[in-house]
């Protein structure tokens, strides 16, 4: 089980990303628009730098939904490898079977 503080920090980051997504997209579009004046583009870049760092989507960490474990994460299931194996062996994930040969 991951530290609760790490899980909560990641949740706060997700909320910030959601909150600032529209603003960041608008500022990036303005900063990359070649038809605008250079000073307007510079102002857009400066405003983009004022946005909180944790509002950047790359700061969000994928974590297991049950344990909060950050490593060995499977996006398709939203689980880490350990939980995926446990739930798969118990038959709780439809369509997942343990391979053997």
Care to give the gist of this entry?
This protein is mostly helical. Helices cover 51% and strands 4% of the residues.
Structural commentary:
The protein is mainly α. It is built from three helices and two strands. It has two domains: 1-61, Helix Hairpins; 63-94, Ribosomal Protein S14/S29 (30s Ribosomal Protein S14, Chain N), CATH 4.10.830. The chain has helices at 4-32, 38-50, 81-90, and strands at residues 73-74, 79-80. It has a two-stranded antiparallel sheet. The longest helix has 29 residues, at 4-32. The protein is elongated. It starts with a helix and ends in an 11-residue tail after the last helix.
What about the largest sheet? 2 strands, antiparallel
CATH architecture of the largest domain: Orthogonal Bundle
Helix-strand topology string: HHEEH
Q: What integer is the average pLDDT?
A: 93
Total beta strands: 2
In order across it, which strands form the biggest sheet? Answer: 1-2
For the termini, the CA-CA separation is: 32 Å
Task: Compute the number of helices.
Answer: 3
Poorly predicted regions are: none
Quaternary organisation of the protein chains = single chain
Q: Provide the helix percentage.
A: 40-55%
Count of distinct structural domains: 2
Report Rg.
Answer: 20 Å
Q: Which overall shape is indicated by the principal axes computed on the Cα atoms?
A: elongated
Strand content: under 5%
Q: The CATH topology of the largest domain, please? A: Helix Hairpins
The top level CATH class name of the largest domain? Mainly Alpha
